[in-house]
Amino acid sequence: MLMSKNNIIAFLSIFAFFGLAMYFPFTTPVKINYPKSWPKPVYDFNKNPLTQEGIDLGRKLFYDPILSKDSSISCSNCHLSYTAFTHVDHALSHGVNDSIGTRNSPSLMNLAWHTSFMWDGAVNHLDVQALAPISHPAEMAEDINNVIKKLQNSTSYSGMFYNAFKDSSITGEHLLKAISQFELTLISSNSKYDSVMQKTSSFTPQEENGYKLYKKNCASCHIEPFFTNNQFENNGLFIDSLLNDYGRYGITKNPNDSLKFKVPTLRNIEFSYPYMHDGRFNNLSEVFKHYTKGINKSKTLSTHLKTPIVLSSNEKVDLTAFLLTLTDKNYLFNKNYGFPRALFFSENE
Amino acid sequence: MKFLFVVSCLLNAHILMSQEETSPIQVNISPKISAKDAITIDNLKFYLTNFSLVKSGETVWKETNSYHLIDISKPSSLSFNLATKIDFDEIHFSLGTDSLTNISGAMGGDLDPTKGMYWAWNSGYINFKLEGKSKSTSLEFHLGGYAPPYQTVQKIKLKTTKNDLTIFLNVSEFLNQIDLTKQHKIMSPGKEAQRLSKILSTLFYVNE
Predict the structure, then answer these.
(1) Domain range spanning residue A234?
(2) Which residues does residue B129 pair with via DSSP β-bridges, in sequence order?
């Protein structure tokens, strides 16, 4: 019997690695702020403690086209900060590969409370989400390794990685965790709705009536305070025969999941048009028309929509007034979220 | 099980089971491919995880952070140490990663997503990857999946008292059990990935 034997003892290098990895003397810890009434985040911050250095690095990566194959597209091309990190005016996001091009880019906010990512929940953790846009499904390994090679050739990046993780050899883990760190800071909790809930402001009678209508008709799926139940539901859209997107079914292969999509938040809905997974509706009145007149009664239709929603035209106006109270200028125009000019132009390479 | 002879694919993962140099226990992991299969293997990688040692039915030792990516093209991946020195009569481990690992976000070391063992568009680890060619077709088996009902991680228990043991994986037999004219490409979790993972789990054995 042929048999060769190799004994490689890696103790020393392993100890050295952990010794370094656990040594964070110069990082600046950051805590996210959110209303006291909110539940605890789903994201496990112990596994990726936020630091200013990590957030800065993640922010730079988010805005850097170096992450795309031909260095042409950054995350921010499809997720713009002043439009709730979505791609307005594009029903289907334009970008690097077919997988992306079949869906509308969702807004990015309050990600620490998400239990799954993508319209069909294809991604199970924020950290690994970025692998999807920066790689092709069949050739994933090649691509992320290329990205890492490109980053390793940049002295400013190896410095930033060192500052954030005390490890200048850039790893996939640290790349992804840095992007997560920035994304985790994208919190929207300062809308008029929030101040009404905190009793520092009050609804107009119209908004108040809209709030009631929302509670009656929409709150079963778009639950407060995140305006989503984090579940997959069929909200009665007819299938687009060109895209043939069956949503959650594609992931679970369970027929009961056919045509189910993740319930999106309604926060900052004023800015995140066009609406739905394929961006088929351009404005809220089309959305209301769908919920009142356009429901496709297919097998998997959510039980919450089995009885038709009725809204008079006045009620639609009131509901709209309420939905506009979910606009959060603090989030939309937050200077900490925008293009990090200083992080790019201090670079001399 | 008879082998005609072993082609190039002989992996040896030596597990030194002692920090003291005095009584190391070695485990060699050895995928075998017989020449008559006329199969070329370009890529063979899999996770072996959760190593533990059992004596008289009781777990006497468990490896912490027990993740080993075995990669036929990387001799260094075939050699690792289990830091213990203990009497045992069974070695237990899993083929693949457990569900907690699959939902815990970005991890480092052998679990780093740069290792080519992670699905970007349907989160989760590829537990076993075999790519190559047979006479008639290309082979692409990416087996993984942690979500019920299609979990693919497999527990493997082998009886042995040896301090120097080789664990074989009979890759030829795996390919024999699949009708390659019908099934030569699996790229996502599901029934088939689960079925093939179960077959693989029966094809580990120890030299005695």
Answers:
(1) 192-327
(2) B45, B142
Chain-chain contact of B105 with A128 (C-beta, under 8 angstroms):
yes
Tell me, yes or no, whether A19 lies in a domain: no
Q: Are B198 and B153 in contact (CB under 8 A)?
A: no
Asked whether residue A62 is domain-assigned, the answer is: yes
pLDDT in tens, A173-215: 999 999 999 999 999 999 999 999 999 999 999 999 999 999 9
Are A1 and B6 a contacting pair at CB < 8 A?
A: yes
Dist. CA B125–CA B69, nearest whole Å:
11
Residues A310 and A221 in one domain: yes
- 3 state DSSP class of A128: helix
CA trace torsion A241, A246, A251, A253 (10° rounding): -100
Q: Pick from B12, B104, B105: which is nearest to A6 by CB?
A: B12
Which tens digits make up the pLDDT trace of B138-160? Answer: 899 999 999 999 999 999 999 98
Kindly provide the ipTM of the predicted complex, given to two decimals. 0.82
Residue of A nearest to B113 (CA): A172
A67 with A150, same domain: the answer is: yes
Specify the pairing of strand A232-233 against strand A261-262.
Answer: antiparallel
- Residue B193 in contact with residue B130, Cβ under 8 Å? no
Look at residue A297 and tell me if it is in a domain.
yes
Instruction: Enter the tokens of residue A322.
Output: 């309420």
| Pairs across A and B, CB distance < 8 A | 113
Q: What is the b/e burial string over B180-198, where b = at least 16 CB atoms within 10 angstroms of the residue's CB? A: eeeebebbbbbebbbbbbe
Supply the mean pLDDT for chain A: 86
Q: How far from the centroid of its chain's Cα atoms is residue A40's Cα?
A: 18
Chain B contact for A22, CB < 8 A?
no
Query: Do A216 and A265 sit in the same domain of this protein?
Result: yes
Q: Which structure tokens are listed for A82?
A: 């002043």
Sort out which chain B residues have CB atoms less than 8 A from A2's CB and list them: 5-6, 10
Domain boundaries, chain B: 2-206
H or E stretch including A196?
helix A192-197
What is the pTM (predicted TM-score) of this model? Answer: 0.88
CATH code assigned at A56: 1.10.760.10
Distance CA B38, CA A92 (A): 46
Decide: helix, strand or coil at residue B45: strand
Same domain, A113 and A148: yes
Q: What is the DSSP letter of B143?
A: E
What is the distance between the alpha carbons of residues B148 and B157, in angstroms, rounded to a whole number?
23
Please choose, from the candidates B69, B70, B52, B48, the residue with its C-alpha nearest in 3D space to the C-alpha of residue B61.
Answer: B52
Q: Within a domain: residue A20? A: no
If you ran DSSP here, which 8-state letter would residue B8 be given?
S
CB B113 within 8 A of CB A147: no
